Amino acid sequence: MTLSLAGVGYRYAGASRPSLDDIDLELPEGVVVGVAGASEAGKTTLCLVASGLAPRTVGGQIRGRITLDGEEVDAWPMHRLSQRIGIGFQNPATQLSQVASTVFEEVAFGPMNLGLERDEVVTRTWDALATMGIDGLADRDPRHLSGGQQQLVAIAGLLAMRPAHLVLDEPTAQLDPAGTRLVADAIARLARDGAGILVAEQKTDLIAAVASTLIVLADGRVVLRGPAAEVLADPRLPELGVPQPSAVRLELAAVAAGVGEALHG
Amino acid sequence: MLMRWIAALAAFVIVIVIGMVSIGNFGTGVDPDNFFDTEGANSFALIGALALVVAFVVYAAVEYAQTRSFASIARQFDTRTIVLIPIAVAINIILGATVANALKIPIYLDSIGTILVGVLAGPVAGALTGFLSNILWTYVIPPPFQNGPAAAFGIVAVVIGVLAGLIGRAGWLRPRPNRPMAQLGIGALITVAVILGMAWLAYLGWTSEAFGGTVNLDVAGSDAIFTVLGWLVLVLVAGTVVGLLAVLFIRRDLTAAYVVVAGLGTGIIAALISAPISANVFSGVTGGGTDFLVAALRQAGADIGAATLGQGLISDPIDKITTFFVVYLILAAMARRTIARFPQGERLLEKGSEGEGSEDGEWRGATS
Amino acid sequence: MAGSDQLTVERGVPDFLGRPGPTAFHRLNPLTKATLATMTAIAAVVLGGLLGPIVLVTCAVLLPALVAGVFRQLVRTAGLLALPIAVSAFVVNLFFFPGAQQVLVRIGPVTATAEGLAFALEILVRILTISGAVTLFYLTTRPADLVLDLERRGISPRVAFVANASVQTVPAMVDRAAQITAAQRARGLDTEGSLWRRIRGVLPIVGPVILGSIAEVEERTMALEARGFTRPGRRTLLWAPSDSAMEGILRWGMLLALVALIAVRMTGTWR
To answer: Where do the DSSP E strands lie in A75-192?
Structure first.
């Protein structure tokens, strides 16, 4: 299943200028696409539009075509779209449903809302917990977990919806280094297992680790696009407000110091 | 569609008639000194509130019978509202418990959440918020926040929520900045008149017979408690007055006057409904700072019905004006985008400041 | 990957969901316990005098509390709950009962009266009964269980959500307030001292707590809708509290008893 955005633009309610303009994006299954850009460049907006929350939940207007395997999804209600595309956010605590006293119930929240058979709900929940490696947390209270663990629970909750694609908006932005490692490893695992993921990140190191393709946004438009390794080595990144990943910075520093050969040798 | 309203109205009238007949207060005549019959007025408001609830149930039932759904009610309960309500309930309970248990001043401050949800989402949502707050406050919240009597006043909270919904729908809380001095002048007049009127009522309460007919500001004996409380209330009132006048003249925002009138009206109605509950169920004692006020009035010779009503008419308008003012401040601090997405959000924003934008050609809004 | 190899392991509804309570009273259906608490509270108001409420509180509150093993906790908690009201009731009625004739003792400018004492005692017992009934419910029932039971019986999942989320939000907001208080204290905020100081100290905390919570509304809305929250109709429940025909009869019985009591009191056939 492929999610396609063609010529997509978006403007928030009451805004005069669009926040996104002329976006073309293909997200097939099994591919991880990274989105980088300075803050306010449109990363979050792109995530909201790709997942359908914009314009359904947040209002505003779009133009262009968004299709799933060629079928236009404009008329799909949010609860139908959420079974194809899951979206995760930065703040782990605000993604908790607040009605679950155990991680199991928290992850089961989505399938329960869908009205599936109880056995199906239970199976999906256990599978999602296993995929994220948090079976052992099943009976814990989600409010008392660390930020990183809560983020894993949030993603597990999305996986229980069995979406074909995942959109993650800066999943490690509010986590400490330990949490960042937890979540980054989980995303890498998901990618290896063949999920189609769109991940927006400031931390280009994370993108370097998991993404195969990378697009860079500036002012709501795509300005760079290509294989992740190439784009990350592009010298224009810093002026676009995107920090280069440590590997690239190391390379550049070594070359500048005249020891580039030693790095590769 | 008309059928529903007719059925609801019929139910409303029927319940009122049954209520009046069984309580039998309507025939006790008018007291020439007070210009109204305290007993009758007391129970009438409570019966009215009950009638309102029954009418609502009838309305919903007819709608369901006609359309197999509750569309007009469900519209007020989109996801955003559902997310806001628990927050509003928590605000109600926490602030209300703080005032009742720790501050001991004769106001409540337990309706900020109810009124916020009411103006943003509508009457039914506001009513649910109020009802839920009171029920949870008694049955489910652990001490030290728990408040035993709260559940009995659930119906008062329901009516407050409904009133807030109607006030929001009527656009009363829409900011009206930069008005000409003439309009502001009238607004200021109303504001100051209402505030002074209530301050005078409070003053009357304090100078009742219990204290020998004069306000004794010297701290002496048991009078001390009442004097201190009196000063506190005056300070609060003064603070709200200053705040309202600031909004009125610094921001040149006429809505400050609307806030005062909304608070006054809501406060009076709330007092009318809660007085008989307080008198008949709790004999005027609910554990908050208002108890002392009731005691002072009884000492002055009023029976328990009149004492609770008197206390209510002093505390409630002050409380509700302050609450509406706080809600107005909260709305001012919220992002425009967020307010606009609530069911009644458009009516709380300045005219013409927000819109979905023209649907020119290719731009389209949400279709689902 | 953990779990995927254990195909032979039974992975049903986990047993930590819906664990039954320790005593028979705990295991009663939550609606039954709620009915008991409500009927008792209303009856405490309807019954006048001293004897009725005392019998009521013994049968409907204290005895069940003994069965449920929460007697001591109940007395402590209900006492705490009723304390501010009791103090108010006593002070107000003992000394300020209008029209009282029998003077007990004079303390300075105020007089304690016998009528006032009798009235104060009546109110005290009534209030203790109500707070006892409500506390018994609170001590033996998880609110989420009651909401789940109601949802099974047909209330809208959205209303159920609001009720559950409200219960969780109150302690969450208190924690948030505690955090902000600690942070403000570190910046020199004064939270002790005179009443005026305390009121002034409350404001810089109330503001961020309220506004911070409201600012989260947008994010939470999106997170819920991303998990199918907008789907109309019933949702699947993993489990629900058990119920029995006996308990159903019991609940109706309590309701009828209360109605009968009200009717009797209104027609004045019994004091």
So the answer is: 85-88, 165-169
